[in-house]
Amino acid sequence: MKVLIVNTSDIHGGAARAAYRLHKALLSEGIESRILVQKKRSDDFTVTTTVDTKWQKLFSGLRGAIDQIPVKRYKNRTQTLFSSSWFGFNNVIEKIEEIDPDIVHLHWINGGMIKIEELEKIKKPIVWSLHDMWPFTGGCHYDEGCGRFTKTCGNCKVLKSQKEYDLSRKVFERKRAALQNIENMHIVGLSRWLSQCAQSSTLLCDKKHINLPNPIDTSIFKPFDKKMARALWNLPQDKKLVLFGAANATDDPRKGFKALNEALGRLTIDNVELVIFGSSKPQNPPSFKFKTHCMGYIHDDVSLVTLYSAADLMVVPSLQENLSNAIMESLACATPVVAFDVGGNGDTIEHKQNGYLAKPFDAVDLAKGIEWVLSNENYESLCKNAREKVVREFDSKVVAKKYIELYNEVFHG
Fold first, then answer.
1. Full-model pTM
2. Kind plus residue range of the DSSP H or E element containing 241
3. Structural domains in the chain?
4. Count of alpha carbons within 13 Å of 278, Cβ hemisphere only?
């Protein structure tokens, strides 16, 4: 069977890393897998780029900015990403036809990669993994809790629009026109939460749905000696280290940095230090109760493994979350996680078994969870449970087999 995974990038970003991990897992199971991307960052010969000509190369770096032109009109919009996917002039469809796969597996296709109307030109069976809410909204990647995707969007909370027929309604109607003509489409909700959202949406309610997670290679993401890990990162050996990390970790309000700051201020334990990765040190860093180590962007798995292993726990205070790579990676490295009980966090964190699920948006309970883990008499059991959960349910071999079952079902009708 020939599977083509389509994603904006191959290894840059959370969705890209998840898609690439699935690709490698499929290859190891004997599936003929290829990846088609707009931005190729690896030297992997199984990854094909849509950029062939000088003209395409010129526009490749501009496509994301061009796609944002209609969004720029909304000056008061929130920081949540909004994609209109209006810009065409790409050869994605031609590349798909050239590769001629049995199944096209879409992942994160934004950043100007594909125009909405081009989706119905894909003549192969489609599987679409939802890395955020964009496939069934009027353009926002997370709806900030508005829920209008169950109707027709408009009066958009993310755009801070006061008009019913705004950009979100226009994008919604373009999606509806394209999606209603695609019959053989299976929607993969990476978390139970997002799968339920998709099934309740106007745009995807008539499609076939399945809940399948991202895979993770637990032979790579595994515990590393804590003392050695701390020495490698020049972190103190005698402190409780709390890890926080995400792309634009300190800038994106959805990542919950404000709640984390408040929770840390409420801790009664005094031998704690904070470790942040996923963003550069800000010019005017916020003042914390505890000493903070900013590790910047980390681009390779080995460095991530040592950093997860150096920490005593990870905190993921996101206000909306699908299936967090960071949570899965941390647990695989036997480091417990504290997070709000939102989105897909409950798929990976078992409350008081391998971490702590705090009441949504309650910084007091988040602080309680941090202290509960750091002071736990059975801390080693939490670590053991963390690793076992991921190996049992999310390991590459386990998950790849489930995707192969799905592909067979899709291909054979």
1. 0.93
2. strand 240-245
3. 2-215+396-412 (3.40.50.2000), 226-393 (3.40.50.2000)
4. 20
